Amino acid sequence: MNKGRSFLRKVFVFINIFAAAGLLLSYAAAYISPGRFWFLAFFGLSYPVWLLINTVFVLLWLVLFHKMFFVSLVCILLGWNNLLAIYPFRFSDPVAGTGARIRIISYNVHSLYGNQRDVIIPETKSRVTEFLSRQDADIVCIQEFFAIGEEYTRTLGKFSGSIKLDHYYFRNYQEFWNKTKINAIATFSRYPVVREDHFKLPDHSVYAIYTDILLNHDTIRVYNLHLESIRFGDDDYSFYSHLTEPDKEKTPISEGSRRMFGKLRKAFILRATEVDVLSRSIDECPYPVILAGDFNDTPSSYSYHQLTRKLTDSFREAGNGFFESTYAGKFPAFRIDYLLHSKHFTAGAYKKFNVDLSDHYPISATMVFHP
After folding, report:
1. CA distances from residue 93 to 46, 346, 349, 368 in whole angstroms, order as listed
2. In the chain, where does DSSP find H-type helix?
3. Would you say the C-alpha torsion 107, 86, 38, 252 has a positive or negative sign?
4. Whose CA is closest to 182, among 171, 193, 190?
5. Which CATH topology does 100-369 take?
6. Which residues face 14 on adjacent strands?
7. SS3 for 141?
């Protein structure tokens, strides 16, 4: 009997060490570019799983009065910054201070297809427009803005008028010869736009834009991002459904997992390149910065870590919630949409809106500008 217990304890110790190593590798994923060691990005993506396993081991060893509980406890505490990105511990409400207040919204509208692709686009567009018009925001950053049927300046003019933001800049992901089609990243502003530009890697789509906005007598720069998507198709979602609903007809696991693994790897590497370019632009920017958008990546990722080296996450500063997700799609919930800012701003409020108009939830932050 004692031999059996001793063997079982050794097995648990081995699994605990393996889980602790996995947790440490998930931390390393934030610091090492997937362009160098792409496999670490998978550990970063699975950080919540490693965290959960190690938490279970802490509780198990405490019950058994075994010193091994220190192993997982220390590993968990080493990732304190990762924990704060999941749940921002605060003992008092954030104080934004005095200065010009800016309310900014970021929203990936899923090309106005709603949460699925079987809806009528004009109806969703009307509901999105109505939602944004009620928010009285100063700046709205939209990803996957889609419209077709009339000349693009009329479309954008109508939309900006509806949400009461007269100034805007947009850039299509790809150039269209058809001037009645828009599929773009777009930023709308209450304040004048004095300069704009976009970011595009060779042979790839536009993935970010920036607008320099005149706020009273100061210029601020707003980056609007849509980093590389994993680009899962219907086959991938079908394969995932087969894994979670075993009664359905199955795609071979080796085939489905290999396909999804390859798409994840490609997206990790491409996002790292995009983020490195953006980081250099932010470092060289002479103005206070707000950065908004869909990172398609989690707070334990290289993308998030690089972009928060000099910028503050509004959720960490003023948000609430545990494992707060901004993605409403079929896969497990993650926070992949962000509002970041430079030291010239302080976030006094952060909110996620639980509206079913897209496969993402809109987020907002109210910031005080102190140049």
Report:
1. 31, 13, 9, 15
2. 2-28, 40-45, 47-63, 69-78, 80-86, 121-135, 152-162, 234-244, 253-284, 302-307, 314-318
3. negative
4. 171
5. Deoxyribonuclease I; Chain A (3.60.10)
6. none
7. strand
Name the β-bridge partners of 213: 193, 220
H or E segment and range at residue 184: strand 181-189
Q: How many CA atoms lie within 13 A of 289 on its CB side?
A: 24
Instruction: Estimate to the nearest angstrom the gap between the alpha carbon of 262 and the chain centroid.
Output: 21
Determine the residue type at 27. Y
Q: Which amino acid belongs to residue 333?
A: A
Residue 139 in tokens: 């700046």
- 142-191 pLDDT, tens digit per residue, is 999 998 878 888 889 999 999 999 999 999 999 887 788 899 999 999 99
Q: pLDDT by residue (tens digit) across 57-114?
A: 999 999 988 889 899 999 999 999 999 998 888 776 776 667 789 999 999 999 887 7
Answer for the pair 288, 99: CB distance below 8 angstroms, yes or no. no
Q: Mutual orientation of helices 69-78 and 2-28 as an angle, nearest 10°?
A: 10
Any idea where the domains of the chain sit in the sequence? Answer: 2-78, 100-369
Query: Would you call 7 exposed, middle or buried from its count of C-beta atoms within 10 A (0-12, 13-18, 19+)?
Result: exposed
- Given the DSSP bridges, would you call strands 139-148 and 100-108 parallel, antiparallel or unpaired? parallel
